[in-house]
Amino acid sequence: MVGPKAEVRSVEALVQFRQALVGFGQEVAGAADLVEAELHRVRQWIEVEQVQYWKHAVDEAEQRLAEARVELERAETTSRPEDRPSCHVQRKLYELAKRRLSYCEHQLRVVKHWRGLLEREMHNLAGRIGKLRDVADIDVARAVATLDRHIQALRDYLATSGPATSAPASPLPPPDSASRLPPLGPPRVSEPDSMPDPRTPLSDNASHEKR
Predict the structure, then answer these.
(1) Which positions ≥6 away from 24 have C-beta within 8 Å?
(2) Residues 6 or more apart from 61 whose CB is under 8 A from it?
(3) How far apart are CA 197 and CA 133, in angstroms?
(4) Contact at 8 Å (CB) between 26 and 123?
(5) Are 71 and 90 in contact (CB under 8 A)?
(6) What average pLDDT score do residues 116-139 get?
(7) Which of the pair, 3 or 176, is modelled with greater confidence?
(8) Where are the beta strands (DSSP E) in the chain?
(9) Residue of 53, 168, 48 lying closest to 104 (CA atoms)
(10) CB 200 within 8 Å of CB 192
(11) CA nearest to 108, candidates 59, 161, 50, 62
């Protein structure tokens, strides 16, 4: 079974399509690079900046809580009964230090939770980005190589043989021209082989018929 024939009208159109295909491959590769760079930036922000920040914040909150506890105990043990209301400031600072530590610990747990989610999503995206890179590096490159071979083959063909020329076909007669026959002339009468000699006497039967 013979497949459909390709009708190439312009080799330059194939060259332009090749250039567009190369540009598409470059855009796909650039998009993959951009996605990877953005994922790396988010990972750095969560793992380095946020995790380290809240770990340091928890350490500071623990230290402040310890200091506030010491100040409160010192105030309670050294104050005279009449001076006991002055411990209100130390108690307030101690409660604030406790709330600060609880908040920092909560934020650290949240950041670690999002870090785990990001790791799973990045693992899933790594396969998709790899397929995207295969399109740019393998599929597009293979298609460009195929186009190069076809373009070169067409150029070689055009260089060795010019476009085929054929004699113009004779115009067809009008559809009703077959029924246009020449007009009929008057009917032709066949002549006898020989005419009788007028000098020859008629036979009896002919004389009788004449009389």
Answers:
(1) 140
(2) 97, 100, 101, 103, 104, 105
(3) 116
(4) no
(5) yes
(6) 87
(7) 3
(8) none
(9) 53
(10) no
(11) 50
The two three-digit tokens of residue 44, written as one number: 């750095």
Segments of 65-206 assigned E as strands: none
**Confidence category of residue 89, pLDDT binned at 50, 70, 90:** confident
Number of other CB atoms surrounding residue 54 within 10 Å: 21
- Read off the amino acid at residue 106: H
Higher pLDDT, 70 or 187: 70
Tell me which residue of 23, 22, 16 sits closest to 151, measured CA to CA. 16
Who has greater pLDDT, 165 or 75?
75
Tell whether the model's pLDDT for residue 97 goes beyond 90: yes
- Written as six digits, the tokens of 193 are 């082989």
CA-wise closest residue to 133 among 23, 33, 38:
33
Q: Could you give phi then psi for residue 201, rounded to 5 degrees?
A: -65, 150
